[in-house]
Amino acid sequence: MTLFELAAEGLFQPGNVSRVTSVGRFFRKSKLDELPQLINVLIGDMSMVGPRPEVANWVAVYPDAWDIILTVRPGITDNASIIFQDEESILAEVDDPEQVYRQVILPRKLELYIDYVGNHSLFGDLMIILRTLKVLRLYERKPEDTIRESFSVQERIEVSKRGA
Prior knowledge:
There is one protein chain. This protein has helices at 3-8, 22-30, 37-42, 56-59, 63-69, 79-83, 87-92, 97-119, 122-135, 143-149, 153-161; strands at residues 47-49, 75-77. It is mostly helical. The protein has one domain (3-161). α5 (63-69) packs parallel to α8 (97-119). The termini are far apart.
């Protein structure tokens, strides 16, 4: 299947960054590729904070969880976006990115999404926005941020479960 066919079907191939140009990498790293979603926020289809939209084939993997998650408006940023800010590079480093996404990353994201659905608040949303800005390097990095980057995928998952 070609990239255009995959895109037309809304498929997502974890860890596949071969189709991303150097300009695209810059836009992704700086999160500038998210700016068009602000239009969706302005027209009311999305929120600034909330669970990230997922492609249909991954929604089908855990439909019960998505039934809960889809009760709130999707957002541009959330805790999972912060924790897995370098998801592409994580998946590019593993032997079977699809398996790691399905069995490790996606279940953790779903836990974070469901937690958000049950506990979101204005203060919580403001805190997520501030942490997102920090991740985007608008604030100084703390030493523990650099340490966290050296963790393995599994270590990052465990740290995120503890709320670090």
